[in-house]
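Okay, any thoughts on this one?
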Amino acid sequence: MTLNHLTASDAFSQAAQLYTKKEYGKAIPYFLHAIRSTEKGAFHSNEYLAFYGLCLIRLGNRDEGLNKCVVAAETELNNPEVFVYLAKAAIIMFRRKMALRAISQGLVIEPTHMELKLLRRGMGVRRKPLLGFLPRNNILNILFGKLRYKLMHN
């Protein structure tokens, strides 16, 4: 399949449509064309890379996918969409702290970004550990936290 007739923007749009339809494998060549057709440092270059990384995660290539999202975010200063994709990737990978950091970084760029605000709201707020004198990751806090969650959600 030759995509040379497509602009980077058109290839990215096609990739995004296929991603939305959960046709992740079919989206990959379009993402790659968009990435290869865009100069490093161009406004959308990191966005294309981050969304490609999210697609890789959906295909099961979790480590490489997350790495692409992180690399895209490391140099991003202007495009909050990069942080949307990184946050979504981190959520899929159960990396809550990373997701929250990505959301915060994106909101610094654009404080009114609706998708970032929705992601933040959807993540909820962690409660304080039940046993405040022990660290959050202490086994007693973990067990009591799970018990508290079950009692509150039944």
